[in-house]
Amino acid sequence: MTTAVEETLVLIKPDGVARNLTGEILRRIEAKGYSLVDLRMLQADRDLLAQHYAEHEGKPFYEPLVEFMESGPIVAIRLAGNRVIEGFRSLAGATDPTTALPGTIRGDLARDWGLKVQQNLVHGSDSPESAQRELALWFG
Ligand code: GDP
Ligand code: MG
């Protein structure tokens, strides 16, 4: 266990914004005790999304994922705290909203809509390397 302060990139995806869950998701993040360092709402273009999701290029859900992510505004958050990368992933819950545990953002607030992509409300960086790379992409 390390206690160095970390930063992570959190995205409230277009489904979260469209469903008016921005406040609820920010409430959970703040109630947990993490610090909002920076926050912006933007419409992501394909170039940004291709870089963000480069690791998934070629997978069956890649095209639907990029189309979904460019379908509406996204809220991007620079979030700070000790072990925040792991901590936010834990708050978010499993990728698949059907099996994400109750008590998590995805488990409580998302479901399967029968679409080609899992609309699971949030993104969180999965490692220190990803966090650094993704924060540079979304916040420059
Ligand atoms: P995350 O880190 O939990 O967001 O999951 P990944 O990095 O593995 O995947 C990125 C995003 O692609 C997920 O959040 C989902 O929106 C979508 N996704 C991932 N895996 C699948 C899958 O097997 N099927 C579908 N339909 N969508 C997926
Ligand atoms: Mg991921």
Quick tags:
binds magnesium ion, single chain, globular, 7 helices, four-stranded antiparallel β-sheet, binds guanosine-5'-diphosphate
> What is the terminal separation in angstroms?
29 Å
**Secondary-structure class:** alpha+beta
Shape: globular
Q: What does the main sheet amount to?
A: 4 strands, antiparallel
Order of helices and strands: EHHEHHEHHEH
Helical content (DSSP H or I, runs of 4+): 40-55%
Q: What can you see in these coordinates?
A:
The longest helix has 12 residues, at 128-139. The model has no long low-confidence stretch (mean pLDDT 97). By secondary structure, the protein is an alpha+beta fold. It contains 7 helices and 4 strands, in the order βααβααβααβα. The radius of gyration is 14 Å and the shape is globular. The chain has helices spanning 14-18, 22-32, 46-52, 62-69, 84-92, 105-109, 128-139, and strands spanning 5-12, 35-42, 74-82, 122-124. 41% of the residues lie in helices and 20% in strands. The chain has a 4-stranded antiparallel β-sheet with strand order 2-3-1-4, with helices on both faces. It binds guanosine-5'-diphosphate and magnesium ion.
